[in-house]
Amino acid sequence: xxxxxxxxxxxxxxxxxxxxxxxxxxxxxxxxxxxxxxxxxxxxxxxxxxxxxxxxxxxxxxxxxxxxxxxxxxxxxxxxxxxxxxxxxxxxxxxxxxxxxxxxxxxxxxxxxxxxxxxxxxxxxxxxxxxxxxxxxxxxxxxxxxxxxxxxxxxxxxxxxxx
Length: 163
Fold this sequence. Notes:
- This protein is an alpha+beta fold.
- It has a single domain (2-156), classed as Alpha-D-Glucose-1,6-Bisphosphate, Chain A, domain 4, CATH 3.30.530.
- Helices cover 26% and strands 44% of the residues.
- It has helices at 13-21, 26-29, 124-132, 134-154, and strands at residues 2-9, 33-40, 49-56, 59-71, 84-92, 95-107, 110-121.
- A seven-stranded antiparallel sheet has the order 1-7-6-5-4-3-2.
- Strand 6 and strand 7 form a beta hairpin.
- The longest helix has 21 residues, at 134-154.
- The protein is globular.
- The model has no long low-confidence stretch (mean pLDDT 91).
C-alpha cells in the first residue's frame, strides 16, 4: 500500500526542518507517541535505530525505526531552492513501512511538506487491517502533519488537546 499526503506550513523552511528534527518536540505533535528512544546512533542521523511505541486507542504498536536518509545533514543555513529529505523505515510485528518526507520552500515564509508512505504487511491480521482499512493509515499520517503544523505555527501541544 502506498500513498502521499502534503501540507503547507506558514513558516520558513529552515525553521520547520529544525522543529521537525528536534526529538524534544516529538511528544508535542506526534499524537499517540508513548516512547521514542535511540537504540544506536544519534536521534535523526542516518543509520540511527530507535525503539518506537505508539498508542492508538486500545491498540499499541511497537517497532524499530531506522533513519535511512537526511539531506542536508546540517539543517542550518539551508541554501535557497534546496529540498530537505527525511527518510525512515519502521519495522514492527507484521508490518514494514518506509516514509519519505520532502520539504521545500513554497514561498518566502511558507514550507511545503510532502510525505510518501509505503506499507507491506505480513501475517493474516495485519494483511486484513491493510486490506480493510487502508484509509486509516493515510488519515493518521495527515493527522500527524496537521498536528505538527498546529504545533509549529501556534505552539499547540497534542497532549493538551481535548479529544
